[in-house]
Write a structure and sequence with these properties.
Length: 428
């Protein structure tokens, strides 16, 4: 196969970017040229992995030294009180402002992205994002859409609405949630659709902020996926997982290796960990258990204190840690959720925003873990969930077996193969 130039445009958050890093790394090692049009705060972090950086600003450039995704960390910290509301009330006060920021980034970056496409002359473009970037659609080359969020973002009338966290077996609240979503978002969608068309790109599907590609990949394991009333089209492929191989190794420190109790990984993600009050609440609760904890402390790590039964750091090689633990306590981001399935680990999910409610509900309703009220759980509820899931050898065995199957399906390899075929042969 001839060498391809593959342009990746991930969302600035760690989950989508790490997903693209995993797929891009395999394509790079196969001899292809891989260029990242990531958000500019990733400068200097992708080249050491062997990629070219041709980065883009999604807003007025930040000061030097700002961490990747810093805007969203600040946004989460400042708007955390919204997460205490029912999901239907968050549509206007959280979901819509997020869409507005993302759309603003698409508008701001349009000219820069057009220049990047002209410079790199890609054979195929890969976007892992939730909004349309017209410059990527009008490049005249095959386009790949990756959905590394819960698959409810692909609408189906027979499934719960995205962002609701509603059960799959109880449709009583679905219609009212969808009606409120449309009321809040219809004017914003109409304006964005008109702008997208004005840049020469095709119009958007109704009430959707991004269109399908020539190839569409979504990341979710078969054992947790939804039974659709409307099957996805032939251009869609599911990846049971997409786990990067670029993380460093992790060795359990002696102070934990020599203690008894279960071993638990706790992470609210790079964004959720910016809620210091919540992090302190969970850490204080876990400190009063007989178990051991590896803590991803996040960007405000200096404001957190770990107990004797814990170790942690601002950044941790997550994909090297999950395989060695008994349980994961997570915010329910799709990246971490699918990695837990990949390695066969039960979860306690404390959802905060976006699709995390949907992942939390799915894990709970299928019996692969426990969903707790993120801001309303009691110590007894969290302690009971930790003890029960660590002690449930039958569940852990079932998940371990499922994880072994998922790993044989090689989601990263399947994604790389599909992108290679599209870049070489063009759309079917």
């Amino acid at each position: 196969m001839r060498e391809l130039t593959i342009l990746f445009m991930p969302e600035s958050a760690y989950g989508p970017t790490n997903n693209c890093i995993g797929i891009g790394d395999l394509l790079r090692r196969r001899g292809h040229r891989v260029v990242f049009a990531a958000e500019s705060s990733w400068r200097g972090k992708l080249e050491p992995l062997g990629f070219e950086e041709d980065l883009v600003d999604l807003a007025e450039p930040a000061a030097e030294g700002v961490d990747p995704g810093q805007f969203w960390k600040d946004f989460v910290r400042d708007t955390a009180p919204e997460f205490r509301k029912p999901t239907i009330e968050q549509l206007e006060t959280w979901i819509k402002p997020v869409w507005e920021e993302l759309i603003g980034g698409a508008r701001y970056s349009h000219a820069q992205l057009s220049g990047i496409v002209e410079r790199t002359r890609p054979d195929v473009i890969v976007e892992d994002n939730v909004v349309e970037f017209p410059a990527l659609r009008t490049a005249g080359v095959p386009f790949v859409r990756i959905v590394s969020c819960n698959p409810l973002e692909l609408p189906d009338p027979g499934l719960p609405p995205a962002f609701s966290g509603y059960p799959a077996r109880d449709s009583s609240g679905w219609a009212s949630f969808r009606a409120e979503y449309e009321r809040v978002h219809r004017p914003l969608w109409k304006e964005f659709d008109q702008w997208v068309r004005g840049q020469g790109a095709p119009g958007l599907p109704d009430l959707a902020f991004v269109s399908d590609g020539d190839l569409n990949l979504y990341v979710y394991p078969e054992i947790a996926d939804y039974a659709r009333s409307r099957p996805l089209g032939a251009s869609w492929q599911r990846l049971d997982s997409s786990v990067r191989r670029t993380d460093g190794q992790f060795t359990l420190p002696p102070e934990l290796a020599g203690r008894g109790g279960g071993l638990v990984y706790f992470s609210l993600g790079s964004l959720g960990s910016a809620d210091v009050e919540l992090m302190r609440r969970v850490l204080d609760c876990l400190a009063r258990t007989p178990h051991r904890y590896i803590v991803s402390m996040g960007p405000l790590h200096a404001e957190l204190e770990l107990a004797d039964n814990m170790v942690g750091a601002e950044f941790l090689p997550q994909t090297s840690i999950i395989p060695i633990v008994d349980l994961v306590i997570t915010h329910g981001g799709n990246n971490t959720t699918t990695e837990c399935f990949h390695f066969g680990k039960p979860m306690i999910v404390l959802p905060l925003f976006w699709d995390q409610y949907d992942n939390a509900q799915r894990v709970d309703e299928l019996g692969y873990g426990v969903r707790l009220d993120t801001y309303g759980f009691t110590d007894a509820q969290l302690h009971d969930a930790v003890d029960r899931l660590i002690g449930d050898s039958q569940l852990r065995g079932r998940l371990a077996a499922a994880g072994a199957v998922i790993r044989t399906r090689d989601g990263v390899g399947r994604a790389a193969n599909a992108i290679e075929r599209l870049g070489s042969d063009g759309p079917a």
